[in-house]
Amino acid sequence: MSAVPKPEQPTYLSVNNVEVIYDHVILVLKGVSLSVPEGKIVALLGANGAGKTTTLKAISNLLRAERGEVTKGTIEFRGRRVDRLNPAELVKLGVVQVMELQRAGRKVVSAREFMNATRTDEPLVFQ
């Protein structure tokens, strides 16, 4: 008896062999890859200093504010390359990084509660 292969789910988010450098000289990520299938949840786990936050900042293009940049690899969202877009363009596509709320002394909310609380027909403007 042979197993019938399951059809592959479309990839929602793909990080491929990403390298991040700070201040043009400090290599902080090398060869990071991950894939998030449509409708699934993926956890990014690691020790302090392992690169979890830097990986998330690379995905959401928030590295420039800290003199960082993706120097190798690609990041794709719904099949579209997004690692060269600015953060505002990413937000329009639906990519948003929700910073950890626990440190600010606030109640930690679920992603659904956050999305419901911030749902608006008006575009978000950051200054």
Secondary structure class reads: alpha+beta
What is the fold named in CATH at topology level of the domain at 11-98?
Answer: Rossmann fold
Number of helical stretches of at least 4 residues: 3
Number of strands: 4
Give helix % range: 10-25%
Order of helices and strands: EEHEEHH
Q: Mind telling me which CATH architecture of the domain at 11-98 this is?
A: 3-Layer(aba) Sandwich
What top-tier CATH class of the domain at 11-98 fits best?
A: Alpha Beta
CATH superfamily of the domain at 11-98: P-loop containing nucleotide triphosphate hydrolases
Shape: globular
Gyration radius (Cα, Å) is 17 Å
State the low-pLDDT regions, or none.
none
Instruction: Specify the oligomeric state.
Output: single chain
Mean pLDDT: 81
Instruction: Please outline the major beta sheet.
Output: 4 strands, antiparallel
**N- to C-terminal separation?**
61 Å
Tell me what portion of residues adopts beta-strand conformation: 25-35%
Major sheet strand order: 2-1-3-4
In short:
The protein has about 130 residues and is of the alpha+beta class. It is built from three helices and four strands. The protein has a domain at about 10-100: 3-Layer(aba) Sandwich (Rossmann fold).
Question: What does this 3D model show about the protein?
Answer:
The chain is α+β, with helices and mostly antiparallel strands and 127 residues long. The chain has a domain at 11-98: P-loop containing nucleotide triphosphate hydrolases (Rossmann fold, 3-Layer(aba) Sandwich). The protein is 18% helix and 28% strand. It is built from three helices and four strands, in the order E-E-H-E-E-H-H. The chain has helices spanning 52-59, 87-93, 111-118; strands spanning 11-22, 26-37, 68-77, 80-81. The chain has a four-stranded antiparallel beta sheet with strand order 2-1-3-4, with helices on one face. It is globular, with a radius of gyration of 17 Å. The N and C termini lie far apart (61 Å). The mean pLDDT is 81.
